[in-house]
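Researcher: Going back to the complex we discussed earlier. I've cleaned up the inputs and rechecked each line, so this should be the final set. Can you rerun the prediction on the complete assembly and write out the structure?
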Amino acid sequence: MPSINQLPVTTRFAPSPTGSLHLGNARTAFFSYLWARQSGGRFVLRIEDTDAERSQLRFRDELMAELRWLGLEWDEGPDIGGPSASYCQSERGEFYRELYAQLEAHDQAYPCYCTPEDLELSRKLQRMSGQPPRYAGTCRGLSATQRAERAARGLKPTLRFAVPGDKIIEFTDAVHGPQRFASSDIGDFIIRRDDGTPAFFFCNAVDDSAMGVTQVLRGDDHMTNTPRQLLLLDALGLRRPGYGHVGLLVGEDGAPLSKRHGSTSVQEFRARGFLSAAILNQLFRLGHAADVDGWLPPAAMSAHFRPLHLGRAPARFDESQLVHWQKETLGRMSTAEIRAWLGADDATEFVDLVRHNVVLPVDAAPWRAVVRGDLEPLGELEQQVIAAAGAEFFAAAAAAYAQANSDLKVLTRILKERTGRKGADLFMPLRVALTGTAHGPELAPLLKLIPPETARRRLELHAQNS
RNA sequence: GCUCCCUUCGUCUAGAGGCCUAGGACACGGCCCUCUCAAGGCUGUAACACGGGUUCGAAUCCCGUAGGGAGCGCCA
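Model: Rerun complete. Updated structure for the full complex:
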């Protein structure tokens, strides 16, 4: 549903297939997706696989699988094509070559024969003398004969963009507002590696423009990269997309989300049993202020997305909040859905009983054991409850069970008459003896699921021991 | 070092000069309900980084300070 004053916006997600889909990337992908959907525009998926060393097909497939699992469907992409195909940068060499030629023809780019060692040394020297570590421009003024001489020595050049020295680059960031940079602060940067592959600053900017992207949404860490890309686009006469830089997603300690914070990839959360709707509800509120509170079905989110309310400050990811959305999501699922999610072929009565005591599928295991297995050893609190009730109580309980069978109401009525106990004094010992813990789902239906033989044994056990 | 960005309860955030004795959500505590946990209802603790201005009035505007972050890569 496009809003009245918003033109269709084309956004994109442009991951490099060098690892699994990180929560932070998933969030920017999600915001981009929502923005496109909200405006009635398009969402493009582009794979930035220019690093042949680290890029892998399996990561690309995994990335797409996770995106789809989250429900972020793209309108153009490597698998479905589109007007700007190919959507893999490794297949766009021809397009890049033309642009390189254009830049070189206008002296806006030049071959650089400096070796990585040269460059590192130069940077080191600059740092030591308190200078910004920028490319010194060594190869910028090389004559044709000097270039030929170097090429003859077998040196393979990179291609550098000749940054104009005296420009002010201005743009309005969609989340930060007006920005101003001086080109004199930017060194000539590499736009083509010595193996002929395009470098990020170049192919990323050029593809966004060529693919008709009108709004680039990305992490804050790209903020100071933007003027470089704008310079490049201007030199090429390509249309500038709008840029918006979202605050990063960080861990509980404020450091960028990493392994030591536990799960960080969508795949890991999925494997643990978190639901996509839960993850989406959480991401929806990290670094973004929606216009409503409370759980939203994913399909309703684009209507409540507010691009102008994206956060500038880094947002901390707090798993306890994810757990909250997980509970909210679970509460809205049918028994059949939860049963499938638990993945253990449970009886529907069992599913209905434990669903409110479970956040992840693994949490169902203890209750499964209560119903069709053996109890865990009693904890300290549980032992106290058993001891306080006494052997006599359980003898009476076992006898009552013989009469009442698995009808807890009848069982407790009989026990109440015989022992004079009521309330927690009556129920707690029963709960502990029958389930092994002091907490859990409603006891009456739970008792019905415990095989009679097992229930009797559990009650009799305490009639003898204590 | 240089350039840029950021800073409201523990956490996510509302807030575009008076509607703010700063609101909501999560988490936490209490009460109610209840055999227990969960759910639900009620309720409590808790924040404008600091210092100067501007203004009748500032969380909101300006300038500094402090703290945090990013970029300056043949990685994206």
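Model: Worth noting: Chain A has a mean pLDDT of 91.
Researcher: Good, that matches what I expected from the previous run.
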